[in-house]
Design the sequence.
């Protein structure tokens, strides 16, 4: 049965945003910013699962200018995908965490480049003040901007326990202001956080649907080295979802968000040397096929 029957793929979403391109590839960039949840201005030690090294290939490029990063990485993508539209992706840490004039300078090489079709910016719900949204609304008139706002879970208690440093209502309010600024907004969530159950995952899906996200990245809770959760996991303080339970949770999530929300990811992207568990989390194809099987039998 076709995947299109059950959900909107991220490729389909990108095809609508960038109709001039048959395919779109992301170009990860570091804007050289930190995160208010790491540097002490909002929290200390960051989110309990966070190790930027585990998911961003440019986590260590803070001191390299955006222009130099584009010059270094773009040709590598072009060698493989000559005609692809390029979506510059400010990925690691919090990419709106700087005064607005500094942000303008950081983003400019991406918006000015004829090689780049659009810009995605990953950030936190408490880091998009009005002046930043005004800047992004202007940049959005130059080329499409996709603002990625992390939610992770709609359970307030879990948000406190994992040290996110923002509430569900912060997320709802930020997404509403970003939409009012004319931006496309996407999010990411984690299924299987300690203490959560199936109903929590459903509630997270409901918030993603209610806040009209364009796309969502769904990740299983996965444990990476150098995090507080890794220590807690070693002390056996919680268990991870099994492969089957995760796939059931993703299938239910998709049923709730419906086809208005594109599914950008079905699993995590931790690099092997940092991943502790689960060992199946990198097997995207297996996850997608199991989720589609569940969806096809529950119609
Ligand atoms: S907001 Fe993002 S970068 Fe900051 S601590 Fe949490 S996961 Fe890490």
Sequence:
């Amino acid at each position: 049965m076709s995947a299109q029957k059950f959900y909107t793929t991220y490729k389909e979403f990108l095809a609508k945003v960038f109709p001039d391109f048959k395919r779109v590839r992301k170009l990860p960039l570091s804007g050289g910013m930190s995160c208010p949840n790491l540097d002490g201005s909002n929290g200390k030690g960051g989110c309990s699962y966070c190790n930027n090294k585990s998911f961003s290939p440019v986590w260590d490029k803070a001191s390299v200018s955006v222009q130099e990063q584009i010059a270094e990485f773009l040709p590598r993508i072009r060698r493989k995908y000559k005609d692809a539209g390029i979506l510059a992706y400010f990925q690691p840490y919090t990419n709106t965490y700087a005064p607005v004039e500094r942000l303008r300078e950081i983003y400019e090489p991406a918006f000015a480049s004829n090689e780049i079709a659009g810009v995605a910016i990953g950030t936190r719900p408490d880091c998009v003040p009005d002046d930043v949204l005004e800047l992004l609304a202007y940049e959005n008139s130059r080329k499409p901007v996709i603002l990625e706002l992390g939610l992770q879970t709609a359970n307030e208690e879990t948000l406190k326990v994992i040290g996110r440093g923002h509430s569900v209502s912060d997320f709802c309010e930020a997404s509403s202001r970003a939409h009012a600024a004319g931006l496309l907004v996407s999010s990411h969530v984690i299924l299987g956080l300690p203490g959560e159950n199936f109903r929590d995952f459903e509630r997270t899906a409901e918030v993603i649907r209610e806040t009209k996200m364009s796309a969502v990245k769904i990740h299983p809770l996965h444990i990476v080295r150098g995090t507080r959760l890794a220590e807690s996991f070693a002390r056996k303080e919680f268990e991870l979802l099994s492969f089957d339970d995760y796939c059931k949770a993703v299938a239910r999530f998709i049923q709730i968000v419906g086809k208005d929300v594109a599914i950008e990811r079905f699993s995590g992207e931790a690099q092997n040397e940092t991943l502790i568990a689960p060992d199946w989390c990198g097997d995207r194809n297996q996850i997608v096929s199991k989720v589609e099987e569940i969806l096809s039998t529950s119609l």
User: Anything to note?
Assistant: Residues 107 and 238 are 40 Å apart (CA to CA). The chain has one domain: 3-298. The pocket of iron/sulfur cluster is lined by residues 35, 37-38, 46-47, 50, 52, 93-94, 124 (CB under 6 Å).
